[in-house]
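Lab channel / #folding
Pinned by the channel admin:
"Please post every new chain as: sequence first, then the structure tokens as a reply. Keep commentary short and put observations after the output so the thread stays searchable."

First post following the new format, from NK:
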Amino acid sequence: MNRPPQDGGTGGGFGAPAPWEAPPPGGPAPGPASAAAPGASGSSAPPPGFGPQPGGPQPGFGPQPGFGPPPGAGAGAGQGFGAPGSAPATATGWAGAGTLPPPPGAPPGYGPPSGQGPRGEANPAQAALIGLLNLSCLGLGYVLLRNWIGAALCWVATVALLVLALPADVDGVPMGLLVGYGVFLLAVAADGARRGLRANLRIGASFRRLALPLAVVLLAVPAGGSLAYGAARDEAREQALLDRLTAADAQVTSADGLAFDRAEPLLAKALDEYEDLGTKHAGSRAGKLVPARLDAYYKTVAGPYEKKTYCEAIAPLKHLRGLADSFDKGLLGSRPAKTDEPLAHSLYECGTAALAVATAKPTAAESLNELLGTFPKSSHATRVEPAVREAVKKRTSVLDTVPEPCDTTVELRTLRTTLRDMTDASLDGVTREAVEGLQRGDFACGTDQFKDKEYEEAVKTMTEYATAYPDSPQAAHARSIAIAAEIADEEPAAGKRLPPSEAPGGSRMVLVVSNDGPGAVDLLYTGPTTGKVTLKTCTTCTKYPGPIFSQGKKIKACQGPASKYPKATLLLPAGDYHFLQKRAGTGSSYSDTKTSKVKIEPGYSYTNCLYVTSGY
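Reply from TO:
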């Protein structure tokens, strides 16, 4: 059977096929054109698939290259057809020999799956192409093979991954999911390579030339997607760190203006965040902002110092200075050292302001002791002794002129307590000045209380003075004022004038006082001189009947033997005296207080009998 001559070139009409293109069954093999040789234009070309074809052996029927006629065969005998241009020879294996003819062509619609065509020779380059296209995550290798189920699986897997991965968050995609997806891609790549090894693709030669470079380029899809996702995840992490930084800033802001004991827990949380961001995430945008945040933290916490509320500034400044022991030193730098001067200044100002304030918190001693102990060489430490000395002098110099010496004395007492609690040797001299000033202040206070008719307070103040300073030249006078105040508390006329500091000279009159009653008696007197005597109880004496039972009869007290009654003898200058009799209670009677007034005249001696009457 003769066919029309074939034009040169491949069946596609686009030149030589790509390396991975499988030759069609029965078609000319890749290589030179199959046109007749020069000078043989009148001969007929053999039909495709029959006899040897130009360019080498072809798949199909006929002898394979390297095979000759069997031994003993004559000329013209063979298993195929003759050379081009010759008449076909009778094949020995055909009908005459009883062998089966070649199978007829397949009817339309029968054969390999659509898009693949008949199975061809193994083409590794084509297999690599299909595998690379499947690695692009888009299942394009299956698309070329027209394996829509496989392509759909790739699309579903990729979409599922995108749904789970997007939007990118801090934690990213679970590692197990990534490993599973990677294994899936390798599996579909291997499966695509297996399927494409012998598949016949219905694509043009031009596309074949571009397919492999395109497959390599498409590998950028998963690589680029991975890089883009990594960048998105990194951005999510950066944003999360910035959110933590913002939250820490908010805690610092909320602590501003609070008392430090309430603000400290909030500040501690913010510091923990700053330290973690600045050390574990130092390269992040948030980590790079931490130094500036620490500057703002120091400025905010030290706010009371800037406002000159020095006592309130002490605790925050101590906190800032102490961060060097608990916070990362690399992040802090020299910031803690910069708080030394403000802290020393605050301790000085707070301590000196509290020198005369009994209710100050912290006390002057606490602040000044800390200043002298922590910053002994600071300029503020050298100012402590002059400041304390000035505070003492300011109060002692006005004790005799100030309208309220008791208030000044209270301040001096506070100063003495402060100095007693301080241990610095430089304060020994001013401590003695404070003690002397307080002694003067106590006496001035008692005197002022007597003049202001605050007799009960005067008694207490002067009694304590005489007890605290027994060797003082004013101790005796203080006792006199206390006695006079006690009498004046019962008889106001006794408080018209302050008892003299010294008894008057001149003659003295005798006053003998006897106790004709049960219970001991304290007899207090004040006038030209002031004093107190105590008479023991009369053990044999009883109460005299009162007005009802006495029926108007005159009481004759102290009429028994003189030795019967306890006595006391007083030597008194002439003058008017006020007496206060304070009889202690016994088992059958209550205590009794009585006042009386006596005029002592020169040249006389006096007796006074103290007795007790019943109420009836």
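NK: The two ends are 175 Å apart (CA to CA).
TO: also worth noting, The CA atoms of residues 264 and 526 lie 64 Å apart.
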